[in-house]
Amino acid sequence: MNVFIDRMIRASRLEPAVYEEVEADKTAMGQALSVVVLSSIAEGVGNAGRGGIGWFAVTAAAALLGWGVWSFLIYLIGAKILPGPQTKADYGELLRTIGFASSPGIIRAFGIIPGLHKIVSLIAALWMLAAMVIAVRQALDYSSTLKAIWVCVVGWLIQLTVSMVVIFFFFGAAAKTF
User: Cβ neighbours of residue 114 under 8 Å, at least 6 residues apart?
Assistant: First the structure.
């Protein structure tokens, strides 16, 4: 348990060495997925004050699904479409590093405090994006942080577009039933 918490703290501190460590540790997949689940639950807790248990469940599930889609897109874009000369990453390596990049998302639980939701969400999003860039740079062995930023932003924009289409489809279909 100490290794798990230590890794989460180091990932939140944006230490590149921890991302290299989890990339190489094939047994860390469970830990990485636990970080994602904890971060997603924190998102739900932070939103529960805005809409109760239903909103908690929807936002926690959306955070988990969004992470899954974004992870796949980053792998596709970063490892297959735009690999660097040194890129030799498999999907598991990327999932482990990206999983730990969700560590700063734990603070999203503080969004339940009245008046703090927006600022906590913004801080968490920017912090997680910074962690994601480092995770991608390390996992894909990029020599350029700018390339890692590009891959993360493009992946995020595609994921956001897909999410909007799904939300529109879901809520559009729900509105027709009333």
Answer: 49
Q: How far is CA 107 from the centre of its chain?
A: 13
Residue 86 phi, psi (nearest 5): -95, -5
Residue type, 28: A
Instruction: Assess contact for 43 and 36: CB atoms under 8 A.
Output: no
CB 107 within 8 A of CB 128: no
What's the alpha-carbon Rg for the chain, to the nearest Å? 17
Tokens representing 95 are 């999932």
Q: For residue range 53-88, list pLDDT tens digits in order.
A: 777 777 777 778 888 888 899 999 999 998 888 888
**Residue 82 gets which letter from DSSP?**
S
- Asked if residue 48 lies in contact with residue 83, where contact means CB atoms within 8 angstroms, the answer is no
Instruction: Show me where the domains of the chain are located.
Output: 2-176
